[in-house]
Amino acid sequence: MKGLSSDGFSRLRYHGFTSLNMGCNSAKYVKVVEDTKSDRVIRSALLIQKWYRRYMARLEARRRCTWEIFQSIEYAGEQDQLKLYNFFNDMLQQMEPDKCGQPKILRALSVSKRPVSMDSLTLEAEDANIYRLSNPDAITVEPMYSGPHITFPMTYSQLQSLIQAIKSKKRLHVKYLLELLLETREELKKLGNINQATTSISHKITVCGDLHGKLNDLFMIFHKNGLPSVDNPYIFNGDFVDRGSNSVEIVIILFASFLLYPNEMYINRGNHEDHIMNIRYGFVKEINRKYPAHATMVLRLFEDVFSWLPIATLIDRKLLVVHGGISDTTSLSDIAKIDRHKVRTRV
C-alpha cells in the first residue's frame, strides 16, 4: 500500500474496506472505520429528528392558524350581534316605556309578548297563561302516527326507544313535545341558578360543549361514553340549538334524560338559548319547518323553558362550568342572586 494518500485512504474507507494487511495499523484502521459509521448514524438520526421537529412545528402552526380563522368566522356573527345590541340598547333608552317599565318594542319581539323582566304577580299570571296556550290535552294523536310515544314519569326503556326512533328519522308528535317541555319546565323551576354536581358516586363527570343542532355529535358522545345514568353523569354547557338542522331532536333527548336523571343530568343555559338568537341562527326556522301547524305554541313554550335553565354548574364545590365564562369580579353569590327566569333576552 505504498504511496497510499489520505484521499486514497478515504476512498478505500468509502468503498467499505474494513480490513487491510498493514500489520499493527490494521486494528487502528478498523476502529476508525467503525467510529465513522457510528458518527454517520448519529448525524442521520439528528437530521431525521430535526426534520421531524420542523414538520411537527409546521403542523402546529397550521393548526393554530386554522383555529384562529375558524374562531373569527364562528364568532363574527355574534360579535356583530353584540354591536347591534349596544346600538339598539342606546336607542331604546330614548323610547317610551310600557307599564312594566320596559320599552314596548322588546315585548313586541317576543313570541309570548312577555316583558323582559317581571314581578312575581306577573310570573304567576304567566304560569297560568303558559298552560292555557300550550295545553297538550287539546291536541290529539292521529291514528296513523308511527313515531315514538312517551309517558311520565320517564323510564330508561322509554329514553332508549326515543333515541332509536330519532335515529330512524321519526319525529316526536307535537302533543308529546309539549308535554315534555311542560314537565321539564316544572323540574327546572325547582333548581337554583347554580347546579350542584358531585362525583362522589360516579367518580367522574362528562362535560360537553356546544352541540349547535349536530345530532350526530350527540350520538357519538353517547356511543363512546354511554347514556346518562347514576354512574355516568353529564353536564351540557349550553348552545345545543341553532346552526345545525337537528336542534329539536337534541333538546328532546337532553330534556328526556334530565327528567329521567335530574341529579345526574345538568343542563346550563348558553347564549343561543335565547329567542332573538334563535330568530337569527335557525332554531325558529327549524320549528316552523317541523311543526308548522303549532309553531307559535311550541316556540312560546321553548322561549319560556330556556329562561328557566340554570346558569352554571359547580362540580364538587371546586370547578365551575358556565357558558362563556365570567369576569374576575363576579362571585358565586352574584350568580345566585340573578332572577334568571325574568330575563328572556339580552340581545
From TrEMBL:
Q: Which PROSITE patterns match?
A: SER_THR_PHOSPHATASE
Family statement drawn from the similarity comment of this UniProt entry: Belongs to the PPP phosphatase family.
Task: Tell me its EC number(s), please.
Answer: 3.1.3.16
Concerning InterPro entries, the annotation shows:
Calcineurin-like_PHP, IQ_motif_EF-hand-BS, Metallo-depent_PP-like, PPP_dom, PPP_phosphatase, Ser/Thr-sp_prot-phosphatase
List the catalytic activities from the record: O-phospho-L-threonyl-[protein] + H2O = L-threonyl-[protein] + phosphate
- The organism sits in which domain of life? Eukaryota
Keywords, comma-separated and alphabetical = Hydrolase, Manganese, Metal-binding, Repeat
- The main enzyme category here is hydrolase
Please list the residue ranges annotated as the Serine/threonine specific protein phosphatases domain: 268-273
Q: Which GO terms describe its molecular function?
A: metal ion binding; protein serine/threonine phosphatase activity
Kindly list the cofactors needed: Mn(2+)
Name the record gives this protein: Serine/threonine-protein phosphatase
